[in-house]
Amino acid sequence: MAIVSSGSGRPSSGQPGAERLLGARLVDAAEPEVTELGQPDSFQADGLPADSLRPRRLQEYIGQSELRQVLGIAVEATRSRGEALDHVLLYGPPGLGKTTMALVLAEELGVRCRITSAPALERPRDIVGLLVNLQPRELLFIDEIHRLNRVAEELLYPAMEDFRLDLTVGKGTTARSRSLPIAPFTLVGATTRAGSLSSPLRDRFGLIQRLEFYGLDDLQAIVLRAAGLLDLDLESGAALEVARRCRGTPRIANRLLRRVRDVAAVGGHGRINAALVDQALSLHRVDGLGLDAHDRRLLSLMLEGYGGGPVGLETLAAGLGEDPVTLEAVVEPFLLQQGLLQRTPRGRVLTDAGRAHLGRAA
Ligand code: ADP
Questions:
Q1: 95, 96, 99, 103: which is closest to 58 by C-alpha?
Q2: What global pTM score does this model have?
Q3: 80-112 per-position pLDDT tens digit
Q4: Catalytic residue among 204, 251, 261, 348
């Protein structure tokens, strides 16, 4: 049971409303970091950096066919029943489209999406304030949901299951527990580390979907779409070259495309071809597989410092001056997927392909 102190705003008798129940301190408290998105006209009027490249509808969302199919069916069924969509957990490496999918779902359902991340929900009143303010069928997107603290997580259980908040009001001998109904809503949780989620929380999601790295065709389509939106004249071979070098990740594809755009603008190139992409990305030290200097430093450290491994994650992280969690969740997945390194019970091992790639890069 969560402890939410109402301070001087202890509720008087009668049916307590949200404000009265939560007390002045909670309601007046600084709002946690939240962004509202979802209604067509408020889509860009938000606190997020304007991302004109984000697909807005399911139809525009490229790739991840299983995810699109599963969620498309769920959206349609929910719409016809007029209910809130079941809670959705999206997991996978960063930049694959989890936030984008939450916004797409809100758009498809015609409701608002409130965006926050677990580290911003430090105090119980942060999450309580968010939940009591939700309107029926709205989406609440919590990024990095594996980082929720226990109190916040326990507040979420009855909220997700029964659309109810269990609160303890007051302190010590005057403490009383109250149950507060909230609007039926949909929680969309995103995480790069599904394994770190507690199982009671995971079990409360009706739809659990993994996002995969994108294939070349999908990435090429994403790059061409983005080039169209950025008003760039990009040859399809050039789009393929960006696709090859973006680590299977749309966010990186968009970032590389912007770097290519800069080089093209400075060089006065109207039409962008594969050679220009190669020139621009080499300038940024992105190699043929899409590895950047940072990835290559990891592989080199394994080879030169530890004879190719096995070597522990913590040791590698210390050698690179990197946080082990970031290394594991952000840097490693693509290197593993490409077969450049392996995880073994004794530590990370550089594969033959990893050695060969370093040889080529050298
Ligand atoms: P995540 O939340 O998984 O870290 P985002 O949803 O923020 O990733 O996606 C990063 C960027 O990649 C988005 O701004 C969007 O422009 C682009 N993107 C992601 N998924 C897709 C997709 N399926 N089709 C087109 N663009 C996409």
A1: 103
A2: 0.82
A3: 998 999 999 999 999 999 999 999 999 999 999
A4: 251
Which atom, in ligand 1's list, is nearest to the CA of 214?
Answer: 23
Distances (CA, A) of 91 to 5, 43, 98, 350: 34, 24, 7, 26
CA–CA–CA angle 181, 182, 184 (5° rounding): 120
Q: Ligand 1 centroid vs 62 CA: distance in angstroms?
A: 10
Distance, in Å, from the CA atom of 247 to the CA atom of 244, rounded to the nearest integer, reads 7
Instruction: For residue 169, list its beta bridge partners.
Output: 4, 176
Q: How far is the CA of 321 from the centre of ligand 1 (A)?
A: 28
Question: Helices in 184-312 by DSSP H: which ranges?
Answer: 199-203, 216-229, 236-244, 250-267, 274-283, 293-300, 306
Q: What are the phi and psi torsion angles at 165 (to 5°)?
A: -110, 130
- The two beta strands, 35-37 and 113-117, are antiparallel
- CA quadruple 190, 194, 200, 202: dihedral positive or negative? positive
